[in-house]
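Quick entry between incubations.
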Amino acid sequence: MEFLTQMLGADVARMVVGLIAIIALVSVNALFLIWMERKVAAHMQLRPGPMEVGWHGAVQTVADAVKLMGKELITPTDVDRPVYHLAPIVIFLPVLLSFLVIPFSQTLIIRDMNVGVLLILAFASLTVLAILMAGWASNNKYSVLGAIRSVAQTVAYEIPLLITLMSPILMVGSFSLADIVAAQERYWFVLTQPLAFILYIVCATAETNRAPFDLPEAESELVAGFHTEYSGMKFGLFFLAEYTNMFIVSALATIFFLGGWRGPFLPGIFWFLIKVYAIIFLLMWFRWTFPRVRFDQLITFAWKILIPLAFANLLITALIMKLR
Amino acid sequence: MLERGLEEKTYVLNLGPQHPSTHGVLRVELEMEGEFITKADPDIGYGHRGHEHMAENRNYQQFLPNLGRVDYLHALAYNQCYCMAVEKLLGLKVPERAEFIRVITGEMNRISSHLLWLGAYLLDLGAFTPILYCFDDREHILDLLDRVTGSRLTYCYYRFGGVPQDIDEEFVAGTREFIKRLRTRFRDYDNLVTKNVIFIHRTRDVGIITQEQCLEYGLTGPMVRGSGIPYDIRRSEPYSAYPLFDFEIPIGSKGDILDRYLVRVKEMEQSLRIIEQALNKLPEGPIMAEKVPKRIKPAEGEVYAAVEAARGEFGCYVVSQGEVKPYRIKLRVPSFANLSILPELSVDTLVADLVAILGSIDVVVPEIDR
Amino acid sequence: MLKDEISKALAPLKLERVEPGDYDKTGYHLEVDAAPEQMPEVAQALKSTGCFLDSLTALDFPEAFHVVYHFSSFRELCRTAVKAKVPKGKAAVTICRVYPGANWYEREVYDLFGLKFTGHPDLRRILLPFDADFHPLRKVFETEKADA
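Done. Structure below.
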């Protein structure tokens, strides 16, 4: 560490170590989440889920990952090769970078930026590009349909997502995630902004393409949507990105509405992770309970209900802030 | 897709034969404009096994096992229809106890078919969990039927003149317990599915079938009952022991998917009622008609028998020329007519709606292909 | 009674045979014989009484195909069987202008028997592959030959 610090300077060293830590975290987190999802789904469906590999199948996903890595990467004929190969990488990189600004605890943050929120949201919207690339390059009609749906959906849901987040930001007066957590010393924002919290959870579900808003990969309609033609670890990267995205939106919810790493007795990092996984559990609960909405209903819901509500919430917040 | 050039407004999307929601090997050729369907052309016959041709090449008894493989989900109704047709040709009278057993097992089979449909249909709509609950319930039925029929899916239980094996006390007790269990489960389904806002929005006012369309396309079963026509062969052309039981025919009002869904769910409740009454009234006596000829050689003639299967009217048209082999057997399968309305229903709908409509028709593709 | 209504509706067509059937033996309330050319009118008459086409099939007899139409009704139990004898080499007449549901049934009969329906909008094979060169339900069809 000291050697690195001397060689690169403190700031760069912090980045390098941080990035390595993030990659480790992302992989472990994805493995855990997949196992968790399978277990949650199984118990909701009257079955035990994976039980064979490790304690209650805990190492099952590791075995699956190894299998996935060992699989042949099939490139169908007539795909748009450069774009087809690039898409899994484009979807995965921004997801990694989003971790740079997330405060896991009071001290555990790689880089606190005064535009933290915007950075995360900007990176999150890059996902659309990757999905569009994957869908278009696959030269498969189901993939294209999935990609088109995904673009329309993400564009529609990013607007209310940002607007809902603006309300707590107004209250704090800063885009920095650390500042937002710091501002929740006395009470969590979920108490003062309950509507924003609900709107955020709905938008986050749509943003991560999960049921009931999993239209880009709607199995019973589009087979597997944009990643129909991907196999092996390329498919694995889409999968990894999806679960990491889930972590990021849940982390944002924790930071904005549930007081981030704040909590009694335990160290901050534990509180942070507990809250994040609780929200992820909520998202999983949605997925295994609800049927899927129809595409036009989804878009209508975003433009006609979510966006006006988000605006109303923002206006009321601004009004109260002004009057106080 | 790229080769067709930019001046073309529509493109062709191949739904199936390998697709998660075509329920077997059905292919629907869709002409699409964006996500909207302008033309749908179902392509059937991937599972054609030539049952009707087989019928002409074997004697009456040998064809019996084929009936369990036409519609494997409600096999007992098909067994029963064929037996009824041949019994009519031979002039056989089935003893009352056998008729009761046929009703009990047939209705159990109907519930298992509807349960599978319920789960699979919600899977089409994107709800993953219900199918496992339905299979959990269905498993009990399969175990019970396994006891008396000896198989779990492709039953071949009824014989000309009765049934070969009597039901025992354990079956009766198990069935009673199952009825109690399923009634509590219906409450769960109701809370989880029928009251779900997303589900209602996906199904209401989608895929509406008018009463005229029912008539023009010869639809039967829950398809017509969903449109408000109380047509049920168990009531309109009473066969077996059905006239002895008290049950209702649930009907819908609008003829949309939601109505068809509700009709099927309520039908399961009515089936439970029928089973309960049949168990209470179960008479003692023989289970096989006396004097069933060993060599079945009906006199020249023809007969049409129909039963209410889970998907609609199953008709069996048997033509005999006085030989040991039937001259011709036509299987009038409900899914065939029911699916033929799909091209008309799917115009100007989204792919998601097509999947929902196709699911609500409740096709069993091997039955269409025969 | 629906049976009488149907008989009355069919009377002006002067069909070969319209007589009540023996329900206990055959499952028909009404048996009708008609010429193939009359079928659209027969279908129209049956439709006006509220009957639907239950099934449509054919029987292969040495001298002719018998096209068998089964009609039934949602209102009242009345099964009507209409038979039209089509001599070999001739074609039957489609009723799918009256009953769109007959479209697929006629395609099936064409597919399995090789019997053509004049006026059918889309007479393709339906169950067998489009390039099949046999009609399996004809009595002259031999299974072994087709397998080879």
